[in-house]
Batch of 4 targets.
Target 1
Amino acid sequence: MHQIHHYLNGSIVQGRSGRFAPVYNPATGEQSAQVDLASADETREAVRVAHDAFAGWSKVTPLKRSRILFKFKALVEAHADELARLIASEHGKVFSDAKGEVTRGLEVVEFACGIPHLQKGEHSMNVGTGVDSYSMMQPLGVCAGISPFNFPAMVPMWMFPIALACGNTFVMKPSEKDPSTSNRLAELLQEAGLPDGVFNVVNGDKESVDVLLTDERVQAVSFVGSTPIAEYIYATASAHGKRVQALGGAKNHMVIMPDADLDQAVGALMGAAYGSAGERCMAISVAVPVGEETASRLREKLVAELGKLRVGPGLVDGPDNDMGPLITREHLEKVKGYIQAGADEGAELVVDGRDASIEGDGFFLGGSLFDHVTPGMRIHREEIFGPVLAIARAASFDDAVKMINDHEFGNGTAIFTRDGDAARQYCEQIQVGMVGVNVPIPVPMAFHSFGGWKRSLFGPLHMHGPDGVRFNTRMKTITQRWPSGIREETNHFTMPTH
Ligand code: NAD
């Protein structure tokens, strides 16, 4: 059985805890590997290595750090196909989608290459007579990243490139369900010239996460995953004095106005709802057509498109499938349970993905479509994280906005319309962190920041972009005066007002 170990101080290191987790090929249902689960002591060892490396790395000039990231970018590009195959084999998503996530991660590396400019700080001359003031954006120390299964390359790359560029060292704890990509990225960082110990990978579960949340040498924790765990991460790490950004779950709605180009909206909706088998935090899981006529036309077109959905393995010889399997058998059963719950609660199950027959024991499920879903139902309240789209009809624009604003989550949303005024009202009123206008999955580019509102994000700062630089640095402001001919006449006992 293939073994997946940790990556510490520039080498692959075998775990010593005797604890393992299975890694599956979701397309066949077979276990393909087992990954070491670090003990608390092994995790502390990774933190120590990163802590020891900080003194040296933080003194490397921003320009030299940036040059290493430029080399890393070139290496990731050269190995993009290999990384995408690795992702597809452990996660299950189709090859082109896996390659897309590598590209989106690379964009953050490209942004981080600009660190000499991004970390310049601010300067003011003569804030008082003969007095200058400037701010420095200094690195924090050891930063930790804890990532979910659904983007094994992109989400770690939301976190570590900016942290490293800012002069921090890093301990990455990837999802135990598809851990191999992080180790491969660690090898490529080393090949790019990153000094040993600056980037480390600890594979593990709650035992190692708890060390990262509480060890006093860890300064900052970036987390992406489900809301209950995000909340726990935020509460625990904050209570231990760390700065935290913890991104959680989602339930993303797409409003379709009566004037929308319906073919465009349906095309966008199909990819946004069923792409990556719905296992995206920015997936659209609720379509909100405004008005009965819009709803009927939308439903008819969706049913027709669902009939053409190609479900199958992520790695095939010919053209890619549209959608691969789910991550584990357990998750497959959970999503099937939601489909049953929706039907039991009285939603109309228009297309039942459980009917799809795909050969073999892979964790496959066809695309499902519900109509007449209402806010009280579990399939509207909870994140399903599978290929299940709900149509929740709204009588008016205001009803649609209220339905979304009343929801627990506020990660992403979209409106499809030709009416600029409706779009503008929507952008202003909606209580969601990322909004698309005729764009179904409005993931901000690397040079903007990514983050939801409400219970989709805990902590003040979003990920990557300008917030990423703020999160990974600590500002220090210097006010200085040098002896000169200017002499104060008297002592000052009151606040200086210059
Ligand atoms: P998860 O919360 O189960 O796991 C995320 C990470 O937390 C993993 O590394 C896991 O090992 C660790 N973990 C799990 N249980 C833990 C515990 N009790 N204590 C400490 N650590 C624990 O999430 P997942 O199933 O891997 O990923 C899917 C979730 O991630 C979905 O809810 C999805 O919406 C969310 N997600 C959110 C975003 C976003 O940007 N908001 C992006 C991607 C995924």
Target 2
Amino acid sequence: MTTKPVLSWLESNEPASLSRLIDWLKIPSISTDPAFKAETARAADWAADHLRQSGLRVEILPTGDPAGSGHPIVLAESDAAPDYAGPHVLFYGHYDVQPADPLELWDSPPFEPVIKPAAGPVGERIVARGAVDDKGQVASFLEALRAWKETTDQTAGGVRFTVLLEGEEESGSVNLDRFVRQNADRLGKCDVCVISDTGMLDRGKPAITYGVRGLAYTEVILHAADRDLHSGMWGGRGPNPISELVKVLAQLWDADRHVTIPNFYDGVRKITDAERAEWDALNFDQTAALKEIGLGPDADIGEAGFSPLEREWARPTAELNGIIGGYTGKGAKTVIPSHASAKVSFRLVDDQDPEKIAESFFEFCRKRTPPGCRWEFLNHGGGDPATVATDSPTLAAARSALKSAANGTEAALIKTGGSIPVAGMLKKELGLETIFMGFGLADDRVHSPNEKFELDCFRLGARAHVLLIDELRRMNSRS
Ligand code: BES
Ligand code: MN
Ligand code: MN
């Protein structure tokens, strides 16, 4: 059969598909905030129902230790057609979202999705927390499953899928590692993982992402006196933990913006000449990207000796994500606080190890302990970097599906600076490769107020997933 009826089902049922997505986006599944635990579970139930309606066997599995302390994982399976000879595909996505704050910067409430005209000359977009990250992208896959079921009465077009939807990606996937290990025999039967949680090169320019960075997320607290002090009496006479903390943190980079932590760059893979050439050929416009976020060309700063794309895709960084200390209310208060703290994270590349990096950073701080002060260190976890194979038959199938979905535009091979911890876990624990086939745009405001997903991108995603299923059914090798 041809895919024509399946693709036209998508077109004629689009209003219903969008209203389903809107229902899902209305559920505030903020995984990091315990106040939203019940809502997060409701978002899992919602996805489970959707998958069931498309004919898959679905389980909602508790996570955490004690069991149920984490957010549930939705695990669904489709039976393959008797003559199916393609790979067993693990589809991964996440149904949790980032917190929506600051609420006052949203033009419409984050959990009341609206469809609005796009900023450009054509099209529309859906605006809500989770629109592109990741409910909208997962929905493009769910609708493809539905389209196959509705038009052929065959679950997932006869392709063997295991679908894993996580509810803790945005809070560091803290229970996923254990889940993967405990379900290694089931997940290990899969041949390859497909994830739709990344971006495209640009509007109308589809891409496959072959690498994500890793992350080590820490917090350091510098303690001084056992109480807050009057800065008139104590200023100049004892340690101010805020001043001392920022002096230590400022030493994290040298004048060329290389990270100064000893052994930080151990294991970092060199960018090959071939990669350099391929990335240069993408003609990435850094000046335009800076302009989009309100900055001029002089803001093109970062580690010396590397291009902007190289810095995002293949170089590790140290970032301060928050500094807390002293008086932050209205007006003035002359105080020397008892302590000050900072959230410090590191984006990592192959083959850096997040645990080692966090430990080296703590050691860096210890060596610089300001007189009279004491450190407290917290490791908030993170994830391994992952670079995936670009030569597999499944990847070729995905590229071909993307190309037809985009009416002949070839998919680019790109990397991203973001992190998706599951990819590293699957590789390390099960030897699984991942294919990142994502549909976000650089201006989607991921994690920000007014997050959006262009309907054109949603459509492209749904079509690409329909066509990927078709490619898979026609494959005859397991890889
Ligand atoms: N979907 C993103 C990762 C991403 C962002 C890929 C931008 C491509 C472009 C994911 O949901 C995410 O936000 N990951 C976190 C991971 C962290 C919480 C462990 C990240 O990258 O900060
Ligand atoms: Mn995501
Ligand atoms: Mn995210």
Target 3
Amino acid sequence: MRITVLAGGIGGARFLRGLRAHLASSHPGAEITVIGNTGDDIWVHGLRVCPDLDSIMYTLGGGISEERGWGRDGETFVVKDELAGYGVEPTWFGLGDKDLATHLVRTQSLAAGFTLSEVTAALCEHWNPGVLLLPMSDDRAETHVIVDDQSGAVDDEGRPLRHAIHFQEWWIRYRAAIPAHGFVLVGGESATPAPGVLAAIAEADVVLLPPSNPVVSIGTILQVGGIADALRATTAPVVGVSPIVAGAPVRGMADACLAAIGVDTTAGAVARHYGGRASGGFLDAWLVDGRDAAVVDAVESAGIACRAAPMMMTDVEATAAMAAECLALAADVRTGP
Ligand code: GDP
Ligand code: CA
């Protein structure tokens, strides 16, 4: 069985850990390909940082900080403090000492002419995540957020000036607390899928969307040329898990992202945003938490099979059970009711 997963950072990584555990007992030999979001990527202090790819690599490789959910376990921040002493920006981005090794290897390899796919494969040889981790694209395409100028500057007509800041500045420095007027994937117009990405969607037996941010993780991957079309065209069932439970994100600020694109923060609204196949979307089935059982009928009337079950990734066992639900629902939509 070939399973392809489109993933952001923490939510994607935790789901993958459960999926891998479920498959180890139910389908040994199953192959997981992950298409990772690289819209969060950023140059910091001369280093190329890929937060979502690293979250997946560290989580599946056993090196993640379980408390923070991102970065290395047993991390120290000596270099970050030294840099702050020099007063160099950005001071708000958390570069840990162990984490730095990854960024050094990546940056050096990119400078030597290797593609991000090749560099990611080399890093994964060390971490051994048990999945094939592909960046969505080898091209530089970074999410920016349109916000009001924070200095209070206004235009000739007294309206606040707007400008674009890097996604990481909005998410980490401002904790998504300044309203986003929209998101722009700078470089996205010309970015092409990394080698293997389109084939992984076309040739999959099942495509899964873990509980990842629908706007700045999954939504970003969908903007890379050809990926959304490949999802619409694949014969594999596409099954997603809602990252919204009981009208709120489980962690993070997905509500601020959804508000910016005019989608309600509900499990049902996110499914309708992706859309069922009959209405030009790509979603065959959607899983919501038991607390959202009330949205099941509305999602089904949008042409998307929907089930409610526990959808909290509290530990690997609970997450493996979620993955099992996804695959059971995929089998149902493939064979029909
Ligand atoms: P990021 O790149 O680190 O922000 O991670 P993702 O893009 O993968 O998105 C994390 C999303 O997963 C957030 O919108 C959370 O609300 C959602 N999430 C986190 N933990 C859980 C969970 O246990 N259950 C569900 N259903 N969603 C979760
Ligand atoms: Ca992310």
Target 4
Amino acid sequence: MMRLDKLLSHSNYGTRKEVKQLIRKGFVLVNGEVILDDDFKVDEEKDEIVIANNEIKWEKYIYIMLNKPDGYVSATYDNFKPTVISLIEGYDKRNIFPVGRLDIDTEGLLLITNDGMLAHKLLSPKSHVDKKYYVEFEGEYKESFKDRFKEGIILDDGYKCLPAKINYLGDNKCEVIIREGKFHQVKRMFEALGSRVIYLKRIEFGSLVLDNNLKLGEYRALTEEEIKKLIEN
Ligand code: URA
């Protein structure tokens, strides 16, 4: 159960003050009855809530795919730089956060949600969720990179990466699949090979594939099918 004014305000019908006005003016019906009391409690799962002829469907969990642009921090709050959450409009007070991190200069697929359980599952090292990146790099490409990726590249701090895959596309471009998410991992893997990443974009995260229709900074809600696959991941 939750307060009617809270539900409306969290569903983007205005600030708490504005929605109280809507309720008091008789614009809101619960199960067919006009409710004038803003602290009226509703069962968000079952009650039929209608405001100005629109039925409100309360979604407990929010799942958004963002095509992250360069220059945004993968966090909910930052003192200096804009965050990925600042790009997402209409979900104020819904406690959404990015699932994992992309570096400030990395672009591409970032899942934004308020489903802590799913985030935890997807980020757990045990889950081994595949992440696919498109990479442009400086330096020579060598056939031996394939085996080095397969064997597990050793990073600057001595950490041996899990087996990964590289698919060279020619012209210093490639796709890489890793199953973990160590700090700056792809960049450090290339450094270990004597190269340098100059452009990085995530294109897949588990079963989720970046929607080509999304321009940088654009986002959309996941489809039911995408959510289902992700949960089953
Ligand atoms: N690897 C990196 O180096 N940076 C990212 O943002 C993601 C993976």
